Amino acid sequence: MKKLILFAIVALSGLDLAQSEPSKTAKDPDPYDEDLIKVLKPVVDLDKGGDVSDRRQAITRLGKLVAQFHNLQNALAHRLTDRDEAVRVKAAEALADMGPSARGVVDDLVKALGDPSGDVRYWSARALGIIGPVVSYGGDDPYGYVEITVAALTRALKDKSKKVRLEAAWALGRLGPFAKPAVPALLDAMREDDAKDEKIVTSGGSIRWRAMRALADIGPEAKEAIPALLKVVQNGEGRYVHGCAVIALGKIAPEDPKVLAALLAAAKVKDLRGPAVYALGNVGRRHADKVIPTLIQALDVSDIEDKVIADSMQRTAIRGLIRLGPAAKVALPKIEEILKNPKTGTSARSEAERAAKQMRD
Asked: What's residue 13's pLDDT?
């Protein structure tokens, strides 16, 4: 919020950030901080309460302030072409902080993906991901915005900077099914051999893992990825990559015969049981007879020492059973055992109570 207000002050005052500022000692007051205090005074006044007259004045001043911020995104977009790299970076970062409110400058952010600075390209990609599918917000040509965003982020998957490629993959996932045209490029990104080190994967630094996550978020529109994801599940990799592929298959086509068979097999592997049970929860009722036995078996967490993981496993399995409807009543005895067990976790108990009520009715 402070970053947005700072840029608002700069934009509205016409200051040139590219100009050098005089050096200040640690004791010198920062004029920008003083301006922030003044700008935020209506918010502070509202928080203090006071009589109705004070609150009315504060809300009126705050309303005027918000009205001024309508021009903020355009002011920041203009700074995306500033001659100073640091200004361009901060402008892109501030637009990312604005989130969906910056949807009016998507075209400027797309252009910024071609900036010479890797940091500007990174924050521009991130901003486009946070803004999400502009089609949700309407506009003169909402689908056109999605098309240019997807095309630009797809090109960014080939960026020379790995952090830009990582952010482009993440942003495409945020666009969900609208990112279908990017599936071939994401499959190509999946080939990057950077997921063998689990530390890189868990830190979010693997292109291969990010691409699979994006394919999962695209969902059924990413059916083209099924063979590649099945190959990951069948050949085995690190547990995080393996598990990500399982979840992706569950989001893309859980009822596909080959996918369903792979998910049922994965549920028998301890390290993959959680992702597989989650994925099986997306299977429709017409396959209930195949899925219910596996979900009931997953309710037994006696081999899981971590209480949090055990709680999550039971909760996920019970949710899957609830979705399968009347056929899942065969699980009632096991669910009642869970309710009687004093060691049952909070979230699992809550789901078990809901399931028991539904199954008894």
From this structure: 33
Q: What percent of the chain has pLDDT over 70?
A: 80
> pTM to 2 decimals?
0.81
The average confidence (pLDDT) of the chain is 85
Q: What is the CATH number of domain 80-189?
A: 1.25.10.10
Token pair belonging to 98: 């604005």
209: closest CA among 227, 186, 226? 186
Enumerate the H helices of 40-161 as residue ranges.
41-48, 52-68, 72-79, 85-98, 106-112, 118-131, 142-156
Burial class (CB in 10 A: 0-12, 13-18, 19+), 55: middle
* CB distance 348 to 318 below 8 Å: yes
Domain with CATH 1.25.10.10 in the chain: 80-189
pLDDT, tens digit, 9 for 90 and up, residues 165-185: 999 999 999 999 999 999 999
Gap between the Cα atoms of 225 and 242, Å rounded = 15
> Exposure string (b/e) for 14-30, b if CB count within 10 Å is 16 or more?
eeebeeeeeeeeeeeee
DSSP labels for 200-239?
HHHTT--HHHHHHHHHHHHGGGGGGGHHHHHHHHHH---H
pLDDT over 60 (residue 246)? yes
Alpha-carbon distance 96 to 87, whole Å?
14
Tokens of 339: 């309710």
